[in-house]
Predict the structure.
Amino acid sequence: MNVRRSLTAAVGAVALTLGLASAVSATPAALNPCGFYETGSDAFYNHCTGDGSRVVIKVDVAWGPDYERCVAPGTVWLGSAGKINGAHYAGRTC
């Protein structure tokens, strides 16, 4: 019986360790995903590219007219999460 408990505890410890390693490695990507994302209070667009291109995004505004914006590589703040419904690549560079 003690062997079974030891084995079960060892398997659980390995699973926990692997689970924590996966969570830690996934965290940086989850912080700044490519494209549109929201935090609890803000809306952002992250243009992920390695070529330095600037692209046009279309921003979907909740209570106002939508608009287009030229963005460089990296993350840009679009406004409060309650005012922005989303944003997407418009299909062209700028």
